[in-house]
Design a protein that fits this description.
The chain is mainly alpha-helical. The protein is built from 4 helices and 2 strands, in the order αββααα. Bound molecules: FE2/S2 (inorganic) cluster (FES). FE2/S2 (inorganic) cluster (FES) binds next to loops.
Length: 78
């Protein structure tokens, strides 16, 4: 795991660090760690995360979860 991803994980509360290898986006089968990695690498909007990972590109049911991770990692709002 790269340094940026490690730093991003350090910002997350324990509840958001669970099940990293399970799909955060069920519709497109995108694991949570892939979403965190994209955010850590600079994606600071849900649209950017969607472009990189396809998460939230299904019926949008995981949008709030993606937004929450962005808030925690880029805006220090956890
Ligand atoms: S779970 Fe991600 S769009 Fe539905």
């Amino acid at each position: 795991m790269d340094d940026k991803t490690q730093q991003a994980l350090a910002k997350l509360p324990d509840i958001l660090k669970k099940d990293l290898n399970q799909n955060l986006c069920m519709c497109n089968e995108v694991p949570k760690i892939d979403v965190i990695r994209a955010i850590a690498a600079g994606a600071d909007t849900r649209e950017k995360v969607q472009q990189i990972t396809y998460a939230s590109d299904g019926n949008g049911c995981c949008r709030r979860q993606v937004a929450r991770l962005i808030e925690c990692i880029h805006e220090d709002r956890c």
